[in-house]
Write a structure and sequence with these properties.
Blueprint: E1 8-10, E2 16-18, E3 26-28, E4 31-33, E5 37-39, H1 56-64, E6 70-77, H2 94-109, E7 114-119, E8 136-137, E9 146-149, E10 152-155, E11 160-161, H3 164-183, E12 189-192, H4 198-203, H5 218-221, H6 223-233, E13 241-244, H7 260-271, E14 278-282, H8 300-305, E15 313-316, H9 321-329, E16 335-338, H10 340-344, H11 348-354
Parallel strand pairs: 5-6, 5-16, 6-7, 7-12, 8-11, 12-13, 13-14, 14-15, 15-16
Antiparallel strand pairs: 1-2, 3-4, 9-10
């Protein structure tokens, strides 16, 4: 067990008990985290629909959860081309920067720390969100998923392959969004290179059929990722920049293939050389049985990548108090990200500390509007703790 996880404290009954590793402090770049609990990115669709500006309601929501050692925001679109989910926020206009400043000020006033997750949805966007224009991606391969539009979820379409100029512009858009994030008062940024979105579409050979320098072998398909990282590092110190990335098995062209794991290994090994703040890696969100990723099920994901990434590792997916404490104690993770539990539990940190029961999510309000099921979940009263 790490030294910081072997300290002790007196419990309510005066009995000496081992401190939970989740509640030991951690130094992340220039940030002193009071605990190792991270609020994972959670899309909630509460930004203004016309200009993608975050609202006072979002400031209240994030401030309620500021007891987390670190908050990572919902995905924040880097540009109009990167926007691809209804009622989500952006970071390309000054109005959006001012909206986010209200959020970061509220979080900081509540004693928290917050990163902006930089997001380009690529082929997961839809013409209905782009004035009829096709979304942009590596190649014209339909991801065979569902886009979230103002009218609801609709099937994705085959996107428009990006030109080299559009790739260069996208890299510049990431850098501008990172610069805007720092102006907005964020403590750093996280690059979304995971799941079904643009950078993952370039990494995946099934959705990247390019024959130029951004396609072909693993190194070519990863080129845009490193160009994005390097452009952001021209604007923001590496100690304030992290990446969310890892192998996944989804449906359609995102089904795991024999290059899914080698690509992730290559990308993560190369990312280790940049001196980044952190790597956030998700465990399996689907059943890996019978796929090339089967050995990575459960804790296998973290056991596999812990030796590959030389830096802070944040573990995410299906976390509870026991598992989070164990992953840190075993050295498989430095920080643990909780997603869904934070939705209905603004005081999740205190509930985890005391072992109090968790409130249940009202799933009808997760992707909705207004405070109901967003900022109106109550904290436990002191007498109940």
């Amino acid at each position: 067990m790490p030294r910081s996880a072997r300290t002790h404290e007196f419990g309510d009954a005066g009995v000496l008990t081992a401190t939970q590793p989740l509640f030991t402090p951690y130094r992340l770049g220039a940030l002193d985290l009071p605990n190792r609990i991270v609020m994972a990115p959670l899309t909630r669709m509460r930004a203004r629909s016309d200009d993608h500006v975050p609202t006072a309601l979002q400031a209240e929501y994030y401030a309620q959860r500021a007891a987390a050692g670190l908050i990572v925001t919902e995905g924040v679109a880097i540009s109009p081309d990167g926007f691809g989910w209804a009622d989500t926020p952006g970071l390309w206009t000054q109005a959006q920067v001012r909206g986010w400043r209200r959020v970061t000020d509220a979080v900081h006033a509540a004693g928290g720390r917050i990163l902006a997750q930089l997001w380009h949805t690529g082929a997961m966007s839809h013409p209905d969100l782009r004035g009829g224009a096709l979304p942009l991606s590596a190649s014209n391969v339909d991801p065979e998923q569902r886009s979230v539009t103002a009218a609801g979820r609709v099937p994705t379409v085959a996107p428009q392959p990006m030109t080299r100029d559009e790739i260069r512009q996208t890299v510049a858009d990431y850098a501008r969004a990172a610069r805007n994030a720092m102006t907005a008062g964020f403590d750093g940024v996280q690059i979304q290179a995971n799941y079904l979105y643009l950078l993952a579409q370039f990494l995946n050979r099934a959705t990247n059929r390019r024959t130029d320098e951004y396609g072909g072998e693993i190194e070519g398909r990863a080129r845009i990722l490193f160009e994005v990282v390097e452009a952001i590092l021209d604007e923001v110190d590496p100690s304030k920049v992290g990446v969310k990335i890892g192998p996944m098995h989804e449906t359609g062209p995102f089904a795991a293939n024999d290059e899914t794991l080698p690509m992730a290994e290559y990308a993560i090994r190369e990312l280790s050389g940049y001196g980044l703040s952190h790597l956030l890696i998700m465990g399996n969100t689907t059943d890996f049985t019978g796929t090339p990723l089967e050995p990575l099920m459960g804790d296998g994901m973290f056991r596999h990548f812990r030796p590959i990434f030389r830096g802070t590792l944040i573990a995410n997916v299906l976390m509870d108090r026991e598992r989070g404490n164990r992953l840190i104690a075993e050295g498989l993770a430095d920080l643990v990200a909780f997603g869904r539990p934070f939705i209905a539990n603004p005081d999740l940190v205190e509930r985890l500390r005391t072992g109090a029961p968790l409130a249940e999510i009202d799933w009808t309000t997760v992707y909705a509007s207004g405070p109901k099921g967003y900022s109106d979940y109550p904290a436990l009263q002191p007498a109940s703790l």
